[in-house]
Write a structure and sequence with these properties.
The protein is an alpha/beta fold. The chain contains eight helices and nine strands. Helix 3 links the parallel strand 2 and strand 3.
Length: 244
């Protein structure tokens, strides 16, 4: 499967392709997440990509990473797991706020519609805390929180997230999967705020099938969104090794 993505990227003229499957996470005993690979699968994932990197080294640069939640209770254990493998970068993803699998410390899922200002604030707090770890290279779908309450409050909290990203110098992702799937993100109100504050952005293919790698129509849609709000789109992202 990974090779299909690489061949599609080469055909589309991509010179660097970063893989970022949903990370394994050493969570509490007995809990198995439905949305990510198991801890036992990380070695095979990395070795497969190393082999393909060598095979296609004359055509494309393959980078090995993960899309990674921030679970404060388990994050150090995750970094220890990464140190055993050739992980080059991680992308922050805020699907779950709190610690997934912990009944005593799981706040909410960002996909769920809410008018609760406390949830909006918690989402932004959590995202900023993740940024400040210094381990992440990109903030994926920073507008994922499905807040349908007071618009002024949404803009206020979005501005707080954007200002933190600017201070830390980390790009925000315009998520093309959200566009293709008709999701509630990218949220134009978020990107209106981001443009006003001078945020940097990158386009994320978020490809769940190889046909979505470097899809020209999706790239055009993403660039149009950025242009609409005067957002600078960066072509290359400085990758941070999370294992330091």
């Amino acid at each position: 499967m990974e090779e299909d993505y690489i061949r599609k990227a080469i055909a589309e003229g991509i010179y660097t392709l970063g893989f970022s499957d949903h990370t394994p996470y050493p969570l509490r005993d007995g809990f198995v997440s439905y949305s990510r690979m198991g801890v036992s699968e990380i070695g095979e994932y990395c070795q497969t990509l190393l082999s393909l990197r060598e095979k296609y080294k004359n055509y494309i640069n393959i980078r090995i990473g993960f899309e990674t939640e921030y679970y404060p209770r388990y994050f150090d254990a995750l970094l220890d797991l990464y140190r055993k493998h050739p992980v080059e970068y991680i992308i922050y993803a805020g699907h779950f706020i709190g610690n997934e699998g912990d009944e005593d410390d799981f706040t909410f899922c960002a996909f769920d519609k809410t008018e609760d200002k406390a949830r909006m604030k918690a989402y932004v707090d959590h995202t900023i805390t993740a940024m400040r770890t210094g381990r992440y290279s990109i903030i994926a779908h920073p507008d994922m929180v499905n807040f349908v309450g007071d618009l002024d409050y949404y803009r206020q909290e979005s501005a707080r997230l954007v200002r933190a990203a600017k201070e830390i110098d980390i790009p925000l992702e315009i998520n093309l999967y959200g566009m293709r799937d008709g999701r509630h993100y990218p949220n134009e109100e978020f990107w209106r705020v981001a443009g006003r504050l001078g945020a940097k952005a990158t386009l994320g293919f978020d490809s769940h099938h190889e046909r979505h790698v470097a899809d020209g129509n999706e790239i055009i849609r993403g660039l149009r969104l950025a242009d609409k709000f005067g957002i600078e789109v960066v072509d290359e992202v400085k990758l941070i090794d999370p294992r330091f």
